[in-house]
Design brief:
single chain, about 250 residues, alpha+beta, five-stranded mixed beta sheet, four-stranded antiparallel beta sheet, 11 strands, about 25% strand
C-alpha cells in the first residue's frame, strides 16, 4: 500500500523533526519521501525483469462488476458532443518530443493489432477487480511516432477535470514499452463505457489503479515532469501527495 510506505518513512523521520505532519510538509520530509519512492522503484526493477508480466487470469475469474472510480463522466460540452457521435470525432494526439506527431482516431485505434489481457485492477483505496481489456499496445504507436533521444516520460492528458484542475498522469519509458501497456477501448468484450473511461484509457498493469488514466486525449513525450501542471507527475500526486511510482 502506498500510504504504508509513506507513513513508515514519516515515522522514521520523526526523530529528526517534531511530529509526523511537520516532517511530511517540510522540505527535508519531502526529500525523504521522494527518496523512499525512488528506492522502491529501483528495488522492484532490480528484482524483476522489466518485461515480466502482471498476473493474468481466466475468463471465469472476472469480477461480475468492474467498479468505476474517480470521474464517472467528464460531462463537459465537448465530451458530451463527442459521446453523442459514438466518439467518431475523438482524437488521441501523440506529440511533444517525437519526430512524427500523430492524431489517431478511435477508428484508427480499433483497426490496430490488439492485445487482450485479463488482469486485476488494484485501487489505492483498497478494492480490486478483475477485467478483460483489449486495445493496441503502446509500443508500436511510440515507435511509429519516433521518440526523440531526450524523451524520458509520457504524460497522458485527459478529458476530465477534478476540482477545476485538468486530470493527467505520467509514466516513464520502461512502463510505456511494457508488453501489457495498452490503450484499451474494450472492457469485458464490450466497447468501453463512459464510467470506465470511454473511448480510450491507459492500462499500465504493473501499477496501481490511479495511474490508469481514463478519457485519454493526448500523449505528450517530455524530458522531465517538473514543469507539467503541479510538477509531481499526476493529478493525485499534485493534490494529495500520492507517490508518482505506484508499482505493484
Amino acid at each position: 500500500m502506498i500510504l504504508t510506505r509513506r507513513q513508515a518513512l514519516v515515522t522514521a523521520a520523526g526523530g529528526l523533526l517534531a511530529g509526523c505532519d511537520r516532517v511530511a510538509s517540510s522540505d527535508v520530509g519531502q526529500r525523504l519521501l521522494g527518496s523512499a519512492e525512488d528506492g522502491h522503484r529501483v528495488l522492484q526493477r532490480a528484482l524483476t525483469d522489466r518485461t515480466a508480466l502482471a498476473p493474468e487470469f481466466r475468463a471465469d475469474q472476472r469480477s461480475p462488476i468492474f467498479r468505476a472510480n474517480g470521474t464517472n463522466n467528464p460531462n463537459t460540452p465537448d465530451y458530451n458532443a463527442s459521446a453523442a457521435t459514438g466518439f467518431a470525432d475523438w482524437r488521441v494526439r501523440i506529440d511533444g518530443l517525437v519526430r512524427r506527431p500523430l492524431d489517431l482516431s478511435i477508428a484508427d485505434l480499433r483497426a490496430m493489432p490488439a492485445r487482450t489481457q485479463i488482469t486485476r485492477h488494484d485501487c489505492v483505496e483498497g478494492w480490486s477487480a478483475i477485467g478483460k481489456w483489449t486495445g493496441p499496445r503502446l509500443t508500436p504507436i511510440l515507435e511509429f511516432a519516433g521518440l526523440r533521444d531526450d524523451a524520458r516520460y509520457l504524460v497522458f492528458h485527459c478529458a476530465d477535470r477534478l476540482g477545476g484542475r485538468p486530470y493527467y498522469e505520467s509514466i516513464d519509458l520502461i512502463d510505456a514499452f511494457h508488453p501489457q501497456t495498452i490503450l484499451a477501448w474494450m472492457l469485458n468484450d464490450r466497447v468501453l463505457g463512459v464510467p470506465n473511461g470511454a473511448p480510450v484509457r491507459l492500462r499500465v498493469e504493473r501499477q496501481l489503479g490511479y495511474k490508469h488514466a481514463k478519457y485519454v486525449q493526448r500523449i505528450e513525450a517530455v524530458a522531465a515532469l517538473g514543469s507539467v501542471f503541479g510538477g509531481k507527475g499526476g493529478y493525485w500526486e499534485d493534490v494529495a501527495g500520492y507517490e508518482w511510482y505506484a508499482g505493484i
